[in-house]
Specification:
Helix content: 25-40%
Largest sheet: 4 strands, antiparallel
Structural class: alpha+beta
């Protein structure tokens, strides 16, 4: 399934995938500027992932809010995983 596919994907050093069995898959980056940059970099590739930061979440736990839906395909998740592995996203 898509959640399992995403949860087993590698993440960049310093980023942490939070445990979740729901359609929302948080990826903690920590720094507000870094999460905003990652979200912008993904949007430039046509992938809409929201940046969530303080005060919505605790300070230093800014994260990408990856939301999967029944409309997403395995190929969509593969594309996201490839995009998240790019060194240009920091």
């Amino acid at each position: 399934n898509l959640i399992q596919q995403l949860s087993t994907a590698p993440v960049l050093a310093g980023w942490t995938r939070m445990a979740s069995t729901t359609a929302i898959q948080p990826l903690v980056i920590g720094d507000n500027q870094a999460v905003l940059q990652a979200s912008d970099d993904l949007k430039a590739q046509g992938i809409w992932i929201s940046a969530i930061r303080a005060p919505t979440v605790p300070v230093n736990t800014a994260r990408l809010r990856i939301t999967l839906s029944a409309a997403h395909t395995t190929e969509d998740v593969d594309r996201l995983v490839r995009a998240l592995s790019f060194e240009s996203i920091s």
